[in-house]
Amino acid sequence: MDGDRGLGSTEFAAAEKELVAEVLAGRVERFYELVKPCERLVFITAQEILQNEADAEEVAQEAVLKAFRNLRLFRGESKFSTWLYRITVNEARMRLRKRREVSLDELMEADGAEETTYAPLQLADWREIPGQALEQRELQTQLAAAVASLPDNYREVLVLRDINGLSIAETAEALSLSLPNVKTRLLRARLMLRDSFIAQCSGSTRGAVGKGRK
pTM of the full predicted structure? Predict the structure, then answer.
C-alpha cells in the first residue's frame, strides 16, 4: 500500500528516513518518491470526506504542498504516508468547515463521546452479500452512496481503515483518536454502511419490480 512491499518494516523505515534527509538536504526532486506510493490514496481520502472531486483535487494538492513545506516537522515516529493522511484529513475538515460554515468542533464528536441512539437493522450479515455482486456498476454506485451517507466522523475512519487499508494504529494516529475510539467508530460505521447499502439495494429491487408490473 505505502511502497513497503518487499521490504521489512525496519528496512522501509530506514529508506524513508534517508529520503526525508535527502530532501531536507536540498534534493527536493526526491520528495515525489515519498509521495508517489500514497498519492492516489491521498486523493481518495479527500474525495470520500468531501464528496466533491474538484475540492478533493485541491485538498490533495494543498496537503502535499503543506507536507513539503513542513517536512522538517516530520519526526519519523510513523510512516510518512500516515503523516500525510493526517494532513489531508485536516485540510479536508477545514474545507468542510468553510463549505458548511460551521466550526471544526461541530464536525467531529469529542474523543470519548460516542453515545448514539443508532441501532443496526436485524438483517443478513454483511459477509453474506455476494462479493461478485459488488462488481456490478449499479451496486458499486449504491455502495458509494452508502459510504457518502455516513456521518463525517464515521466515514473518515471507514475510509482510512477499510478503503485505504491503514491499520487501526495508523488510523488512530491520522485522526488523532485513541485506539478504542477508532475501533468503536469503525464497528458502527460498518454497521451503518451495511444497513444503508442493503436498504438501497432493497429499494432498487422494489423499484425494478414495480417498473416490470407496469
Answer: 0.68
Cβ 47 vs Cβ 53: under 8 Å: yes
CA–CA separation, 152 and 155 (whole Å): 5
Grid coordinates belonging to 131? 462479493
Range of the domain at 88: 9-107
Do both 130 and 102 map to the same domain?
A: no
Exposure letters 53-62 (e unless 16+ CB within 10 A, then b): eebbeebbeb
Q: What are φ and ψ of residue 43, in 5° steps? A: -65, -45
- Distance between CA atoms of 23 and 51, rounded to whole angstroms? 33
What is the chain's Cα-based Rg?
19
pLDDT per position in the chain (214 positions), as tens?
Answer: 444 444 556 676 778 889 999 999 999 989 999 999 899 999 999 998 988 899 999 999 999 999 999 999 998 888 899 999 999 999 999 988 887 654 444 444 444 444 444 444 443 344 444 445 445 567 677 778 888 889 999 999 999 998 888 999 999 999 999 999 999 999 999 999 888 888 777 665 555 545 555 4
> Whose CA is closest to 86, among 3, 2, 173, 4?
173
Say if residue 149 is in the same domain as residue 94. Answer: no
